[in-house]
Amino acid sequence: MGAAEQEQLEAIVEVTALGLEVWLRGGRAMDFFLGRVTRPHRDVDWFAWSSDAGRLAAALTGRGYELLPEPRMIGNSTSCAAGWI
Predict the structure, then answer these.
(1) CB of 68 within 8 A of CB of 83?
(2) N or C: which end of the chain has fewer CB within 10 A?
(3) Would you call 67 helix, strand, or coil by DSSP?
(4) pTM of the model as a whole
């Protein structure tokens, strides 16, 4: 496992320790479902309650992550993924 993957996993552990209800989505969610890392990931995608968004953002930006832009809707699909890098 590379340094980026280790850092992402540490961030996931830290966020879950905050006691917030968060859910992984995207590639990291699939990895946890399968019980193994399937490929390198550039970002971590989260679902969280809107009332917890500020605490989640503070925890992640405190680790040096930045929020990616919101996805833009084109027809019935999104043009990009929102997440943290």
Answers:
(1) yes
(2) N
(3) strand
(4) 0.62
Residue 85 domain flag: no
Number of domains, the chain: 1
Distance CA 15, CA 72 (A): 26
| CATH number of the CATH domain containing 53 | 3.30.460.40
pLDDT tens per residue, range 47-85: 888 898 888 888 888 888 887 776 555 555 443 444 554
Supply the range of the domain harboring residue 43.
Answer: 3-78
Backbone angles phi, psi at 61, to 5 degrees: -65, -30
Q: Is residue 83 part of a domain?
A: no
Look at residue 55 in the predicted model and tell me its pLDDT.
Answer: 87
Q: Is residue 84 part of a domain?
A: no
The predicted pLDDT at position 70 comes to 65
- Give me 15's structure tokens: 């966020």
